[in-house]
């Protein structure tokens, strides 16, 4: 981040991080199948970096576990995210980061739906439309500048797991 | 000179100059050293060539002379040196092809110890005047710098006589240097100029310019890195120059402010660290005018940064600046720049502390804390400004999350500031408010708030005068209540830490209030008579008792507390044994752990030594009572192997720390108990007289007590003599080879090994081992022997005992182990035995037990045996190969990383083979051995990538979860290989990792996701 640039929201509200998921005896039992659940999806996306702040999406409350829905049998995942301010220009980028992270981390059988929490952003519909359109997502990721920013949001996240 | 010598000399000169034979220079030097001719004669012989009209010939002539001087400069007389210097200085004006050789010659001459006075100055004057250093080649420039360094070391006072001309000459020479090797030399010279007080004259700014133009250093060593120069080295060398004198301040500080604006993170960090370095040598007058600018940059970095290193470098700089300003002595006319600076900091940070939900509360708090920990004066000023509003806010806010943040911020200010003795704590004025906040937070039901308040309490306790006696008592009451009532594991952990810290400082309150209350709780009757406890009630009561036991251990650091707490814990063991208290097995074990912990942490005093010296007979007595107990309806928990094993470390920790007299006594008591059944030293002496613990082969409950003997005699300091050693070893050998109870024969073998390891070398020991080895071999060689496992166990432990001390007989034993690798019955045990051989065992044969452990024994074993292993592997039939692979991977796994890396090329084929070995144990072990190596891959691995990637990917769908996890970690590690090597595998890896993303185990899925995301970032913009 360059020293001179002004941030859109320099002093945002911060929220606490959840601890690591507790390991149970079942987790180590070879014969027990662990279904993919909301928490698992949330763990994948909670540590994605905000494009502007050295904070995770979880700390900014952009993603919350209650806004994650997964249907392991039905092969669908739905994630709602909440931009920190209604005019946040980064909303599409954040949505894209979440989507890319899930595409890279989940089995192919899942249909992944990422959209803005209803009523929390000025151009909610436009953003949702972009995120839902497979071709536009693909085209966005062809753009190397955009891909670079998305990768940077995902980078430390991949390191710290 | 003899005619023959003259011919020899002329011949050498001809061959070098005209014949272009470079090696003749060496011959010439050798002959000169041998006294065949003098340097003067050499110059004469060169005469014609040195005056030749051909520059090439003149150059060749000078080159020969210089080469010879490099070898012979030590043998010259002062007069010879003087003449040669005049000659060389003159040659500097000659043709440019000659210059390199002239400089070489001068460099050799400057090394002469007989350098005539004045010549240092004249050499330098000629150099500066006649040479344009930066038009020379790399090696010659380096030569010039070496001449400067050499003269600065040997002729410092002469050089200083040159005044500022010397600095000017240096500045001119170095201006434009680009080679990192030469820069290191140049920085070295500049540093000497500054530190050794050379006159900078009016060239201060020039010297700064010519060095600071490299700041911040941006250097990436070439990939093959032939010179081993790192960015780090250059950075530190330059920093030493720039921060070397306050006279640079007016130039350096604006430069730092400018460079802090950089987008490159390493440049920011370097700038901040340079600021920290110079603030520790500057005074306030250098800093004063730049404070607003510096602060603006520092604040921006800490407020906005996304990087931890930038933040901590920024905070360190703020701290050092504050310390510098606090240190300065003020004149009556100058304003207090510390105050000026603190005003700036407070103005920008203080108001953010009132917004505990927002992001900037943390960076602001950290900045303020960085200033307040820097000096006593600063802490006073900051505390006075910040604490009242923090306290006021805490008391007025109602949300737990906000109060917690405020409390955590407060915690940061409650750190002791290094100050002189008589300064009272700056927090004294706020003592009462802080205490009441802590106590109110302790009574909240919010776990986070409780945890934070205990940290604040601990911090308050560390400073004199902040906790009054009544506060400590109140604190102990709170802590006791939390131990008894609070089930949250985070809180329990914090209570134990806090209680431990406070008990060290205020033992009295803990003795009078906490210990009795915990004891009462531990021995309280579970339920009123007649009622039957439900399982959940029973469980919660057990949990409370566990916490009480853990807390007792935590507070027992002072002897006075140990004396109170240890009897309580011993009483639990006694009453569990007799069955009067309803203690579960886990509780008994955790009591043992607590006793062990007390033994470990108790301050090493005579007093605690005695307490524990008395604990050993109590434990032995209890164990013996249990072992001799008839078949009554209550089975003593002390008989359980898990409990006995937990008692061993209490005894061993104590024995390892006993003072010699007590240790000797303990040794002889233990030995006479086990050999002769002497029970006279045990408490409550009501034992039968005919006890033979080591011969009680048929009574497991008696024979297993040998593990306690091991904990005792194997852990004593080496100076303590164990009585009746020969008899003891005989009986241990007998027990370990005949008993059929695993704990008994294994402990006997360990005890035997532990004693053998410490026995003095010599014939007695050798014959003992010989005899034992014969006996073991007989058993092992007879396939029908019922005690082959026992014999193997003894072999393994004694091998380890001898291997650790480099005993020559260890090879005979380890060879026996190798031969067992293809044994159908013991092969797998033998392979796993190598893991035991190579790793530290917690209960015997380690450094803590004063065993004779040579460093590097692992490497030595590996070097001596890896060939045997490879040969053995190649020789045996396919179905026996896995034992060898397993042994190999155990051995390699335990080697230090450096050795792994060097040995890897030779072993790689075998390790790759091991990856496709069907044994899953071998797979896991090999993968876990490869994984750390992959983090910094040696080139041998890179040539095998195809096989490595293929085999590892195949294992990601193994039926065993551990194999899947380990292989995914390896795939993850592979993503850090040089990009161009692994890019060809990217698509294949991404495709293959699709399957484990849908694994039925969550742990596997998450490893797969981590690895796959890393591989996605490869070669992708913004990735890496």
From TrEMBL, chain A:
GO cellular component, one term: cytosolic [4Fe-4S] assembly targeting complex
SUPFAM superfamilies: Fe-S cluster assembly (FSCA) domain-like (SSF117916)
Entry's family note: Belongs to the MIP18 family.
Protein name in the entry: Cytosolic iron-sulfur assembly component 2B
Domain MIP18 family-like: 39-114
InterPro entries listed in its UniProt record: FSCA_dom_sf, MIP18, MIP18-like
Role according to the record: Component of the cytosolic iron-sulfur protein assembly (CIA) complex, a multiprotein complex that mediates the incorporation of iron-sulfur cluster into extramitochondrial Fe/S proteins. As a CIA complex component and in collaboration with CIAO1 and MMS19, binds to and facilitates the assembly of most cytosolic-nuclear Fe/S proteins. As part of the mitotic spindle-associated MMXD complex it plays a role in chromosome segregation, probably by facilitating iron-sulfur cluster assembly into ERCC2/XPD.
Cell membrane found in the keyword field: no
Keyword vocabulary terms for this entry: Chromosome partition
Lineage: Eukaryota, Metazoa, Chordata, Craniata, Vertebrata
Pfam family, one: FeS_assembly_P
Subunit relationships: Component of the CIA complex. Component of the MMXD complex, which includes CIAO1, ERCC2, CIAO2B, MMS19 and SLC25A5. Interacts with CIAO1, ERCC2 and MMS19; the interactions are direct. Interacts with KIF4A; the interaction facilitates the transfer of Fe-S clusters to KIF4A to ensure proper localization of KIF4A to the mitotic machinery. Interacts with CCDC117; the interaction is direct.
GO biological process per UniProt: chromosome segregation; protein maturation
Organism: Hucho hucho (huchen)
Automatic annotation (TrEMBL), chain B:
Highest rank taxon of the organism: Eukaryota
InterPro entries documented for this protein: ARM-like, ARM-type_fold, MMS19, MMS19_C, MMS19_N
Classification via PANTHER family: DNA REPAIR/TRANSCRIPTION PROTEIN MET18/MMS19, MMS19 NUCLEOTIDE EXCISION REPAIR PROTEIN HOMOLOG
Cellular compartments per GO CC: cytosolic [4Fe-4S] assembly targeting complex; MMXD complex; nucleus
Boundaries of every MMS19 N-terminal domain copy: 43-304
GO BP annotations, alphabetical order: DNA repair; iron-sulfur cluster assembly; protein maturation
Keyword entries, A-Z: Cytoplasm, Cytoskeleton, DNA damage, DNA repair, Nucleus, Repeat, Signal
SUPFAM superfamilies on file: ARM repeat (SSF48371)
Quaternary data: Component of the CIA complex.
Signal peptide positions on this chain: 1-19
Record domain MMS19 C-terminal: where: 549-974
Residue ranges of coiled coil: none
Functional note: Key component of the cytosolic iron-sulfur protein assembly (CIA) complex, a multiprotein complex that mediates the incorporation of iron-sulfur cluster into apoproteins specifically involved in DNA metabolism and genomic integrity. In the CIA complex, MMS19 acts as an adapter between early-acting CIA components and a subset of cellular target iron-sulfur proteins.
Compartments, record wording: Cytoplasm, Cytoskeleton, Spindle; Nucleus
Name of the protein in question: MMS19 nucleotide excision repair protein
